[in-house]
Amino acid sequence: MGEGTTIRSMNGLSIRQLMELRQKIIEGPVPVEPEEYRDRQSRFVAEISERSLAIFPTNPTRIRSRDVEYIHRPSSDLVYLCGWTESEGILAALVDDQGGATWHLFVAPQDIAKEIWTGRRTGPKEAQRTHPIDTAHPLDKWDEWVKEAILNSSQVYHVLGIHPSLDNLIHSAMAEETRERQRLDTGPRQLVDPRNIISELRLKKSESEIAIMRYAGEITALAHIEAMRQSHSGIGEWQLEAIIEGHFRYLGADGWAYPSIVGGGDRATILHYQKNDQIIEAGEMVLIDAGCEVNCYASDITRTWPIDGTFSDRARDLYSLVLEAQEQAIDACVIGAPYTRPHEVASDVLREGLIQLGLITSDDEEESQRQLKRFFMHNTSHWLGLDVHDVGTYQPEEEPRLLEEGMVLTIEPGLYIAGWRSDLSDVDDAWKGLGIRIEDDIHVTSGGPDILSNDCPKTIDEIEAIVGSG
After folding, report:
1. Domain, as residue range, for 348
2. 272 among known catalytic residues
């Protein structure tokens, strides 16, 4: 099943095996080459109008409390088009009446007084040398430049609502009436949202993107393995969170791709549980949904295991069923299959299994599907890439998109039998408190599904051998 290079032992992972896995991390992926960025830019320009202006600002900084800012995360579209990651920056493409484009990057100028406090800046001169653009400018030249660029454009491509001050500047420039504009009929007539265009470009990943995402998957797998190794009854959810997220940074990732979910016992039945503040008691299962980010590309892995290392009979039955559903759904990730096919496959496996376990009480297809939704209430997949819930329409023209080479999606079936839910009062209490999800990252290829997260153990034998072995 794909190109993963898993090193495992039914007796747990030895120090040598862990070192070999970590050695792959040290080597790291090859960066995206400038030529690839230029190709992305050309493909974007081919989809927009002549005599147009496209604007891609980075994300603004956000205040966490008073004068403390959140750690900055750059705009995914800006990263995709030129690789710029500093906290200030605007990329603009100016397209002439022949369809030729010049790409301009506006960045914060070097400033010793500010750099003493917040770190070195690349500055315009170095940005032009190191990034795939035509011209770099200091940010204080933006207002003047963009007003003139707008007057010479028939359309402006820009996403509203991210930078209010930038939105106001663009609206003002577009609305400005001058005699020259009236005489020559210059200036834009339309403001266009470019997200559909850029999202289609980002949906199918290149070889370099897959290499980065595989690397992120390898780091995330090692972090999950370490959390398994350190698990024991009485450990805090926050402690497992710290082990995983600390491992992300220790192994060189940018950080987490999304806040980690660490839910023990009944809390594992809360899909986006994030408090992570309770003790995990003996006999409970723990569900950890956590992924790191590398060069702004996300991984997304979920594993569920018994905190004291041994599956109970009920947990073993449900886990085996979810694993079977996941494996069959992964097999359905082939070129030409509808995006919805893996979910249909996983749902069928879970429904039949729950009928056999007595948790679904009807053989009627419609009724059994309704009952399944009590225990499996989310989709099986989402796109993955520069965002953990990556861009790309799922049903263009109201029909499920067909999978193509280079697409990456998660496969994450689950079953959740919550003791706190009053609508499950008819379910035998022996099943309650079990939340199980198994999630991997799948690259669609002509050779079949390629599991980018294949280094993360998930069979019952593997898990029981690893948990508590640290």
Report:
1. 15-27+206-466
2. yes
